[in-house]
Amino acid sequence: MSWHCETYVVDSRPSYHYRVMGNRYTPKIPRDNSQSRLGKDKHISLIFLHATSMFKECFEPVIDLLFTGYTSRSGKSPVIDEVWSIECPNHGYSAVLNADDIRIHNAETWQTHEYADAAYAFLRGRPGGHDLPKKNLVIIGHSMGAFMMPYLTQREPKIEFDAIILCDPIISPRCREMDMIEKVWVKSTFSHRDTWTSRVEAREYLDRYKVWKIWTSDIKDLFVGGELPDSHPLGGAVKLAFSKEHEISTYRTSVADDTAHNELASLYASNTPVHLVYDMNPHPIVGKVQATLHRCHGFEPTSAQPIRSGHMFFQTNPIEGAELIMTALEYERNPHNDITVARL
Description:
By secondary structure, the protein is an alpha/beta fold. It is 40% helix and 17% strand. Residues 46-220 form the AB hydrolase-1 domain.
C-alpha cells in the first residue's frame, strides 16, 4: 500500500452518545520538490463518508490510487496531504465498540441523521490532536454518506469545507417512486444472508450473491475483515456488524424524510462548491427521481459527472472512483477549463 494508516476514536459522550472511529491515511512517498513549492491553498485533506452497509476501510483501493496516480497532474491537481474515513457508529468495528450504547439508544431503529451527528462529533473532536476544521477540507459522501451531507453542513458551529462531493445520493420529496424504492431496498435486505459459519464461507458467499459478486476481489476481502468483526454468541459464527433491523430502518427513515431535499437546495445555494456524481444507468425507478438532484428548488450543483460503473462504483471500479474525485478537485482549481460536466 502507498499509505500509512492510523485509527482514532473520538469519545464526546454524553454530548454525543456514541464513540466515533475514523482512519487517517497519509502517503508513504515523500513529496517531490514541485509539490512542496505549492502554496498552502493547494494542500487539502479529504474526508470520506461511506454508504449503508459499508465501513471505514472500504475506500482504501481508491485512496491508494489517489496517493499514487493523482498526487499531481501537471499542476492542475491539489496536493492531498491526508485522507480521513469516518465510520458510522453502527457499522464495522464501530458497531462492536458501541454495542452497549446502541442497545440503550437504538436497539431496533436507526435514523440517518445519526451519521451526520457522528461525523460532526469526529471532525470537531480533534482526533489524535488534529484540528480538522482549521484545514482545507474536501468532504466526499457516498450514498448514505451523501444523503446526510446537507444535515452535517448545517450543524452549529458550522464547519467550513473547501468543496463537497456528493456521490449518487437519492434525495427526493416523498412520492410514489420513493415508496417503491423503499420496497426494493427492503426486499434486497431480506434476500441476503447476514450470518456464516466462518469468514471463509462468508467470502465464498460474496462471490455468488448477485449484488456483491461484482465488487472487486480487494473490496470483498476488506468487507470480510471490516464488516464481520466479531463472533456470534452461538457457535462461533460470524455476523454482519450492521444489523438488518438497522439497515431497514435507515432506508425507511431516509425515504420518509421530507426535509432533506430542502436542505439540499440550501447547500446548492451556499458559497461552497458542490459537485455531484450520479449513476448514468440507474434502476428505472431511481431514474424517475434522479432529476431532483440536478435541479433542486431552482438551484443546481456546481458540476455533475456521470458514473459508468453503477451506484456502488467505489466497490466495483475504484479507478473510476478516483478519476471522478480528481475531476471534481481539478474543476475547483480550473473552473474555466474544458472539464466534462454532464447533466441529464
